Amino acid sequence: MSLATLEAATASGVISADQRDRLLAMEAGPASGETEQSDEENLRLIGGGNDLFVTVGTVLLTAGFYFVLNTILAGRPLLIAAALGLFAWIVAEVVTRQHRMKLSSTVLALLFAASGTVLLVLAVQAGLGIRMPDSLWALIAMRGPVSQAGYLVLGGVILAAALYFWRFRVPILAGVVAIAATLLAFLQTALMLYDGVTSGTVAPPSLQDGPELVRAALYMPLVCGLLIFATAVALDLHDRERRTIWSDCAFWLHVVSAPMLVHPLFIMATGQDIAFGRIEPGTDATVMLTLLIIGFVYVALAIDRRSLLVPTLAYFGTLGIYYLVHSAANTTGIPPFALILLVVGSLVILFGAGWQRIRRLIIGSTLPTSVLSKLPPFRIPPFRT
């Protein structure tokens, strides 16, 4: 049975999307150490030209509907947000539920998440009577309403995204849930610190303690990033062949977790001055920066995820490599920015052109077979003349 037939059967409701994915997995046969598949990271983000065409129509329809609402319901943003959320759900019943158009489904899911967030913010703000404080004492007195508002808004976003995902199975919502959960963890940490300061169990920080306080606060995104990354890896290991929707969810979780891991680790390893945005490029910082780059590259190769490596190279390329090549720029007269572009561009092309061969060479020769059997298989691209 062809893939087109399976997609048509899914769109008409003869089989479910999960059954389609399981049939494709059965057709592929048992996973082996090597598979003659494409070298591409299988991300089902766009379904073809018709999907792109429908996405343009979805954007135009949404814009027109918004302007109509803005005219009819002028000055009533809560009703506008509710109407946009309902609009996204209704259109998704056709575009996503029936025709499984991937890119337009992603746009509709983001529209629903944004509308739901605005709706929750406006409803909670009106319900709790929260207003902008006009003094420090007024801000301190808002601890109770602010905490309730944060829990209601972020918890509501998570529940709404989970409900939409249960209905339509759009992978990008995994990233939305991860971001909302991270903000919820930040809120809880800030409230605990606030309660400690007001009760006297925690000494209030002085102005001189500002950089160290911000540095200590980096542990929160680092912990959240590790949890999100671990969840993404678990989904990758669950779907080694990357044929189901869970591998797409893992992709978005990697996209969310990568900056949360890279930024705190870079600052902790190199001793960057947060307050003034600079680092001291000593020997220890250079060694630690090099080890970090190697570590992230190795992990990305092991789990076969370019999505983890792209923000890593972007971050290290714009911040870290600048200091590594700065001395060369001083002697040659070449602008440091040009050297940064050369280094990062070379790495991107190198890994993009030979990703699977580099992965097999490094990972295949350094990890035991028992570990390799649990990782995504090596995908050797077919020879092209």
Automatic annotation (TrEMBL):
<feature type="transmembrane region" description="Helical">
    <location>
        <begin position="173"/>
        <end position="194"/>
    </location>
</feature>
<keyword id="KW-0472">Membrane</keyword>
<feature type="transmembrane region" description="Helical">
    <location>
        <begin position="148"/>
        <end position="166"/>
    </location>
</feature>
<feature type="transmembrane region" description="Helical">
    <location>
        <begin position="282"/>
        <end position="301"/>
    </location>
</feature>
<feature type="transmembrane region" description="Helical">
    <location>
        <begin position="52"/>
        <end position="72"/>
    </location>
</feature>
<protein>
    <recommendedName>
        <fullName>DUF2157 domain-containing protein</fullName>
    </recommendedName>
</protein>
<feature type="transmembrane region" description="Helical">
    <location>
        <begin position="308"/>
        <end position="325"/>
    </location>
</feature>
<feature type="transmembrane region" description="Helical">
    <location>
        <begin position="78"/>
        <end position="95"/>
    </location>
</feature>
<feature type="transmembrane region" description="Helical">
    <location>
        <begin position="337"/>
        <end position="355"/>
    </location>
</feature>
<keyword id="KW-0812">Transmembrane</keyword>
<keyword id="KW-1133">Transmembrane helix</keyword>
<feature type="transmembrane region" description="Helical">
    <location>
        <begin position="249"/>
        <end position="270"/>
    </location>
</feature>
<feature type="transmembrane region" description="Helical">
    <location>
        <begin position="107"/>
        <end position="128"/>
    </location>
</feature>
<feature type="transmembrane region" description="Helical">
    <location>
        <begin position="214"/>
        <end position="237"/>
    </location>
</feature>
